[in-house]
Amino acid sequence: MAWQKRFKEDPIFAAALRAKWRISGSKNSRTEKAVKARIDLAKKRRGTKISDEQKVKISSSMTGRNRGKQNSQFGTCWINNGLEDKKIKKIDVKDWLEIGWHPGRRKMKPFSEERRLRMSEAGKSRWAYEKIHGIKRDYSKR
Hints:
The protein is mainly α. The chain has a domain at about 1-70. It has helices spanning about 1-10, 10-25, 30-45, 50-60, 95-100, 115-130; strands at about 75-80, 85-90, 100-105. A three-stranded antiparallel sheet has the order 2-1-3. Strand 1 and strand 2 (about 85-90) form a beta hairpin. It is extended and about 50 Å long. The protein starts with a helix and ends in a 10-residue tail after the last helix. The mean pLDDT is about 80.
């Protein structure tokens, strides 16, 4: 994981994370010791092959994890007011709907004019590259 690499290489990041772990003190927060153990285990496994039998064992042990209440997204939903998206607990939905919010996320966030021009130019250059190199793609299926 990227944060583990940063944890090892950046002492300021590591100190900030350690302080956060000390303050939080919740059951689910990882301790520094647990993180170090996971990093060490990852180092030991690096470069080794996993047999088909091990893959089946890993798969069966992971089955059922992050389902229902164990899923971090459980009991939440998205709402929007046309300008802003917000993730809330489902038990609070009625209150938000009463004050003018709508269920779901906005379909597409508006792009700035500068962003639209950059996307347009990128598309033109891709088209030109494909034309020069004789690449034929059917973009109508997208």
